[in-house]
Design a protein that fits this description.
Helix Hairpins; 30s Ribosomal Protein S14, Chain N; 2 domains; two-stranded antiparallel ribbon; 4% strand; elongated
């Protein structure tokens, strides 16, 4: 199980990223628009830099919903490989069949 502090820190990052997504997208569109004057684009860049870093989507870490493990993460199921195998062996995941050869 991951540390509770790491888990909650990631949850706050997800929440902040959702709240600031529209504002960041608008500023990003201004910054990337080559037709606008450079001064306006630079002001948009300064506003973007004033926003909190944790509001950026790139800072979110994919973590297992069951254990909080950050590595070996399956996006489709939102859990780690270890939790997937454990729950699959107990028959808790529908459609998952243990392979043997």
């Amino acid at each position: 199980m991951a540390k509770v502090s790491a888990f909650t820190k990631n949850k706050t990052r997800v929440r902040k990223a959702k709240n600031q997504a529209a504002k960041r997208a608008a500023l990003k569109a201004i910054i990337m628009n080559r037709e606008l004057p450079i001064e306006e684009r630079f002001k948009a860049q300064l506003k973007m830099n004033e926003l909190p870093r944790d509001g950026s989507k790139i800072r979110i870490r994919n973590r297992c919903e069951v254990t909080g493990r950050p590595r070996g993460y399956y996006r489709k199921l939102q859990m780690s490989r270890i939790a997937l195998r454990e729950l699959g062996n107990f028959g808790k995941i529908p459609g998952l069949v243990k392979s043997s050869w």
